[in-house]
Amino acid sequence: MNLDAAMLARVQFAFTVSFHIIFPTTSIGLAMFLTVVEGLWLKTRNPVYLQIYRFWLGIFAMAFGVGVVTGIVLSFEFGLGFAHFAQIAGPVIGPMIALEVLTSFFLEAGFLGIMLYGLRRVGPRLHFFATCMVALGTLLSASWILSANSWMQTPDGVAMQNGRLVVTDWLKVIVNPSWLYRLPHMLTAAYLTASFLVAGVGAFYLLRRKHTLFARKSVSIGMAFAAILIAGQVFIGDILYSTMLKHQPSKMQAAEGFWERQSQSPAPYYWVIIPDQAHQRNRVAFGIPYLGSIWLTHSLHGRVEGLKSTPRDRQPAMGMVFYGFRIMYGIAILMFAVAVASLWLRWHGGLFTTRWFLRSLVIMAPSGIVATLGGWYLAETGRQPWVIFGLLRTVDAVSPVPSGTLLSTLIAFIFVYAFLMTAFLIFVFRMIRRGPEAAPDHAEASASLKNALRLLESPTANAVLGR
Amino acid sequence: MSQPKPNVARKLAGVLTTVVIGIAFFFAIIGVFGLWVAIGGLALAILTAGVIIGRAPEEGDLS
Amino acid sequence: MDLPLLSAVFAAFSITMYVLLDGFDLGVGALLLLQPHEAARNHMVDSIAPTWDGNETWLIMTGVTLLAGFPLAYSILMPAFYVPLIVMLLALGLRGASFEFRPQGQRNRPSWDAVFSVGSIVAACTQGLILGGLIQGVTIRGDAFGGSVFDWLRPFPILCAGSVLFGYIVLGGCWLYLKTTEASRHFAERTLWLALPAFLMLFVSACLTAAFTQPEVRAAWKTHTASLATIVGMMALAAIVLFASIGKRSELRPLVAAVSMVGLGIAGLALLIFPDIIPFRLSLWEASASRLSHVFLLSGAVFVTPLVLAYSAFAYWVFRGKTPVKGWEA
């Protein structure tokens, strides 16, 4: 790898955006999970649902907070690392990002405070409404961001005038060809992530025979969602696959690991390759025979298109794309297997007692996050060498900043983010160790604007408000 | 709920059936047999999961 | 309708809100390092706890408005101020994190307070460096940044960094004077006696240096002599009022005077550089995106900004009056 400015800018953006996406994925998923759990509580009035709600609310609040802090960096980084991209694409993606900022501020200002601190103050029904609005807000935020990113994958609704992009049709920009499939794919990924986190923590307690009631409900709800979501996700993923095959054949060619224009027949399904981009071949390739033909061409002997079908100067680097895809898809298969096993065990009444299953749930707890990262690596590295597919090359988008400066800021980012991640994990593990009974009525983190509502409950506030 | 220890062979048969059904569903949903089979497979999978989750012993019960 | 102008007004409004609001809480953060007593530090942090993160949103809003409405300016300014911007973002991030983590344990609190304070100081200084770099002039080649990424590392921007830091400290001191009691209020008083003269000296020398080093500033003075002189006169008046009200009975007057002083400073600066979006280099119309981008951006802003303002006002109203010595929840 050559450490030139373009590569460093890409590595820096990749690092900061990869770190960032972990937190929104978690908070989008948990917001929906919290909505469901609170709904169940309102319906059944079973206190264990409220306990589950309170436990995950604290983790949701911290994930949301780190997501906001790392998101601020990204809104400047478009220009810091990729000034020419910002100049070209600013008029198109800028307004979408502005609306995302406004949406999330609106959500934070209006409903997050009630959600975090207001249960006793506003009563359960209004509080449930606030939770729903927060879940809706995270969904809207995700829609804007996915719309902006999908536009970079499949640009539409713009015209080039004097070297600048001009929007001709906002509807086409927002509802661009891949957004309709990528948004549900990302949302389902976030919901799956939350399901496996919840089930994993439940299984952890069950293995230690602690907080049994809480743990059983967690495993049960988590796995119920996972079982339904993973089936849907595999389906959406397949539809998205055919969409991207149409719009970005080069990405899918790289994702499957074949070089020749037409692969051998029958085509294997590769799991491990060592690609050699310079010689346009694989040094090593292991796969399952026939499976490539069956999965990709839906026949026993079909041939798969390889990366040589794309001119060399338009090829992405195969290794990153391939492994991003394999990590995501491999985890999806594991999730599917766990979901099937959960249904089988549920039918036979062993869902909460089968130790190998609970252990696998604990291991799978972060799987949603890893799969989401894999999917984003597939999407973003597969789009290369373009930053806006077919319109602007990544190398032409880079800022005039020397590589030494880029390298030092990259190192600074790594240190600061490692510190943030450590602190976040310490607090999450502390919450898990203390258990659900120790979870407070309201979230502890966030000494901020949201406290306005917490204050309204306190005696001081009553004095201040003259009550 | 203490159940009589199931016969090992029957249990194995159950596991194998589950595995085969799972793989069949997976292949169907990723579209190996065409889009319409995929949609049908997805609907059937969600329905089956729904029925099992709905009929399973009450979730929070202590055995 | 002149949509680029409206977008520019929105950006100017956002950055003014940011400087006035985040200014005082960065100032309070900076002062934390000078306060040796932990109880007093807690009191100081409590006074800004309810509102600080809402204040930061205005900064993001400014950046995103530039990206959406003035992509050319955004793409020139970001690389030009690459180093101070990244340092500022990291400092603000660490500051936010230490805010979240300092209540988690007594033992580590002094270290978190130090991180908080240094983060605030660094963020204030980098903002001053950027301001100085802007007035000094950004080198543009074609439609990209053409200078060195260390152009801001010169005496004039460093002078501006000092002015901004002390300006924020004055705002922070006035905020503490309004919001705290007893020891912390005396601390605020002593701070103001030192910080205000320091700020005025730095500010005046920065203005003079600007006039000497940047011919465009002199030109702007010639065209707007009357209005600029009025603004400077009013600033001087605000400074005198501020001086006179330190230690007096009215606790709100210093803050009002300080906010007017800084607000007038921003107004003067706006007059100096209008209609440029990159001072003396690029006008807002030259840098503007196409019409539809402004329509989209402004319709969002028109809809949401009143809500944001209303909620912020509500939060400030809820937390009006003195910060309790034992914290808001005691």
Question: Any overview of this molecule?
Answer:
The complex is a heterotrimer of chains A (467), B (63) and C (330). Chain A is 72% helix and 6% strand. Chain A has helices at residues 5-44, 47-81, 83-117, 119-122, 124-153, 170-174, 179-207, 212-247, 249-256, 291-297, 318-348, 355-364, 367-383, 394-397, 403-434, 451-457, 459-464, and strands at residues 158-161, 164-167, 269-276, 281-288, 386-388, 392-393. In chain A, strands 1-2 form a two-stranded antiparallel ribbon. Chain A is globular and about 60 Å long. Chain B is mainly alpha-helical. Chain B contains 2 helices and no strands. Chain B starts with 7 loop residues before the first helix and ends in an 8-residue tail after the last helix. Chain C has 330 residues and is an all-alpha fold. In chain C, strand 3 (276-278) and strand 4 form a beta hairpin. At the A-C interface, helix 2, helix 3, strand 2, helix 15 and helix 16 of A face helix 3, helix 4, helix 5, strand 2 and helix 12 of C.
Topology:
The complex is a heterotrimer of chains A (467), B (63) and C (330).
Chain A: H1 5-44, H2 47-81, H3 83-117, H4 119-122, H5 124-153, E1 158-161, E2 164-167, H6 170-174, H7 179-207, H8 212-247, H9 249-256, E3 269-276, E4 281-288, H10 291-297, H11 318-348, H12 355-364, H13 367-383, E5 386-388, E6 392-393, H14 394-397, H15 403-434, H16 451-457, H17 459-464
Antiparallel strand pairs in A: 1-2, 3-4, 5-6
Helix pairs in contact in A: 1-2, 1-5, 1-7, 1-13, 1-15, 2-3, 2-8, 2-15, 3-5, 3-16, 5-7, 7-8, 7-12, 7-13, 8-9, 8-11, 9-11, 9-13, 11-12, 11-13
Chain B: H1 8-29, H2 35-55
Chain C: H1 3-31, H2 38-48, H3 52-69, H4 71-80, H5 82-101, H6 109-136, E1 140-141, E2 144-145, H7 155-179, H8 182-213, H9 215-223, H10 225-245, H11 253-273, E3 276-278, E4 282-283, H12 291-318
Antiparallel strand pairs in C: 1-2, 3-4
Helix pairs in contact in C: 1-3, 1-6, 1-7, 1-12, 3-4, 3-12, 5-6, 6-7, 7-8, 7-11, 8-9, 10-11
Structural features:
heterotrimer; A: 467 residues; mainly alpha; two-stranded antiparallel ribbon; 17 helices; 6 strands; disordered C terminus; C: 330 residues; two-stranded antiparallel sheet
Order of helices and strands of chain A: HHHHHEEHHHHEEHHHHEEHHHH
Unreliable residue runs of chain A: 444-449, 455-467
Summed up, the helix count of chain B is 2
- What sort of overall outline of chain A do the alpha carbons produce when their principal axes are compared? globular
Strand order of the largest sheet of chain A: 1-2
* Distance N to C terminus of chain B: 6 Å
